[in-house]
Amino acid sequence: MRDLGFVRVGAATPKMRVADADYNTEKILSLVNEALKKGIKIIVFPELCITGYTCGDLFFQKELYESNLRNVDRIVKFSATEKDIVIIIGFYLIVEDMLFNCGGVIHNGKIHGVVPKKYLPNHNEFYEKRWFVSGFDFIKKIDSVKINGERVPFGNIIFENKNLSFSLEICEELWAAIPPSSQLCVNGAKIIFNLSASNEIVSKSNYRKKLVSMQSAKNICGYVYSSSGVNESTTDLVFGGETLIFENGILLEEGGRFNRESKLIYSEIDLDKLVHDRINNKTFSECSAFNRDMSIIKVDMDEIVYDIDEFGITREFSKSPFVPFTGPGLDERCEEIFQIQTNALAKRLSHTNIKNVVIGISGGLDSTLALLVSYKTFKLLKVDVKNIIGITMPGFGTSDQTYKNALNLMKKLGITHKEISIKEAVLKHFKDINHDPSITDVTYENSQARERTQILMDIANEKGALVIGTGDLSEAALGWSTYNGDHMSMYSVNFGVPKTLVKFVIKWLSEKSDFMDGELKELLISILDTPISPELLPVDETGKIIQKTEMEIGPYVLNDFFLFHFIRNGYNPEKILYLSKYVFEEEYSYEFLKNSLINFYKRFFSQQFKRSCVPDGPKVGTVSLSPRGDWRMPSDAEVSTWLKKLK
């Protein structure tokens, strides 16, 4: 049995009959049996699911109440024989001659606690205060009640064990200005289960979904929502049976509405990610510290372990987590990325009152994006694009394709362009340091990179210009740059953009940008199709690139996947390897994935010294490696702890 920090949760809407507790319980238990087969560890049902929400004055009838309790006991006894699932049900309870609308947590033949509803809607179509009493004041006076002869905790409860903590919210409480779930989350609950009976009117579903999304995001929690289905509909009300599973603002699963039969949805909540984000979010930490509520009851439960090897995972993990989602909103997201880059550069140029920039143009992806950012920035500032000085510096590994692409790109954009070959200068340098140019080692490669940087810096001094760095986030993570060569610039516009996103933004620009025409689009497509290479080793006899970056450091799609989950989510090596196998199984073997991850860790740890002294550059996404911002890491940290499990 292996636990990788996931727990599979479910939200169910049973087919039901109003005021028929026996029938409803049959449907509930049928769904529990289905959930057990699917590996669901916690399942939530709608508000008052035992009897139905719309019973009205029948709630006052002793016969219905006793049937309600009898069927609660039936579910408790069922759980004693099926010990592998937590069942959250809605029922009502008489306490000291008052009726309370409640949610109960059942596991291993026991009711572990009962949570009374606190906010009772009593406006428009709702009339709950006719039947029920708010639990607000009552839970301050009593902390337990008897149900079917057993005394159980009663009040604001967080249910917890070694690896999990969760709590309940009931329908209207989500809509309150300060939902109880906010207080429960800052006091430790990581998942909120909402038992609801929310009727349908036009556009209510969209609003309801936004509420669940925002509540899960604000509280950095999982939020599992189950509402009464169409068979609850009666008199003037229609119910749709909305079921939702959110995690930190992201929709994992939804069940649709107006299903005539029982409905069950499920997904996996990533507890590791929630803990990581809460620890890193100091605002959340301060809310937790300042809002401790001693009235909240903590109830211990048996350990719940989700065996990843038996049940796997069903939720989606993107192969390119840095790349924006497709579909509606895609243009807006790409525009935002480009705007962040251009406005960052505009601020630096305005602040320094510099009117010129210098960029090394290789004909590759990174320098292309940096040039397009600069071009758009100069248009934004209403400065002549001739003040952009693009320099192509062919060397021993420059291919005809990249050389032509570099020249054509600069000419097409109408910037000032120069060509300065570095071959003679580098050969002279080899002679000065007594290096044999036939030995194509690291000295051979890095001498070229440093010569190019020297040219850019000196021309910038001559022209009173800013050297624009072209290196991206992926290269910074892997240390794929020459120290004090392409590692250095005066402002690095791509530093927050990983390689997979660089390609995506250029592709988007080729299709959507306002300064794009047919010829420029074809040129960008040619650049996108060019193998990624530093072009520091000689080309082959046909003039084609032989030094391909991804053959040396591994595919960027894998390295960016590793980087995202290592930095953004704080996952351990075992979890990253599992997820990489899950999403890349058809492309790469398990051994290749493992070796690639080992190589990633080794490079990331050994190359921190380069990241400790990088130029300024804009933060674009949630992952940044700036030593002044998001990532503070000692240059001499050991990688052995991360490699032990993999080896």
Going by CATH, the architecture of the largest domain would be 4-Layer Sandwich
Q: What is the number of strand segments? A: 20
Largest sheet: 7 strands, mixed
Q: What is the residue-averaged pLDDT?
A: 93
Total tally of structural domains: 2
Principal-axes geometry comes out as elongated
The CATH topology of the largest domain is what?
Nitrilase/N-carbamoyl-D-aminoacid amidohydrolase
Q: Whole-Å distance between the termini?
A: 20 Å
What proportion of the residues form beta strands (DSSP E)? 15-25%
Low-confidence stretches: none
The named CATH superfamily of the largest domain: Carbon-nitrogen hydrolase
Query: Please, how many helices?
Result: 22
Assembly classification: single chain
Give the fraction of residues assigned to helices: 25-40%
Find the structural class using helix and strand composition.
alpha/beta
Rg from Cα: 31 Å
CATH class of the largest domain: Alpha Beta
Task: Please give the order of strands in the largest beta sheet.
Answer: 13-12-11-10-9-8-15
The gist of it:
This protein is an alpha/beta fold and 647 residues long.
List keywords for this structure.
single chain; 647 residues; alpha/beta; Nitrilase/N-carbamoyl-D-aminoacid amidohydrolase; Rossmann fold; 2 domains; 7-stranded mixed beta sheet
